[in-house]
Amino acid sequence: MNDTRKIRAMVADDELHIRMLVKQVLKSMNAEITAEARDGNQAVELYRQNKPDLTFLDINMPVKTGVEALKEILVMDPKALVIMLTSVSDMDTVTRCLAAGAANYIRKDTPLEQIKGIIKTTWTEHKEKILTPEG
Amino acid sequence: MFKRYDLQQMKKEIQEDEQHAGEAKPRLVSQDAIAEMIRQKKVAKETGRE
Question: What's the complex ipTM?
Answer without folding.
Answer: 0.84
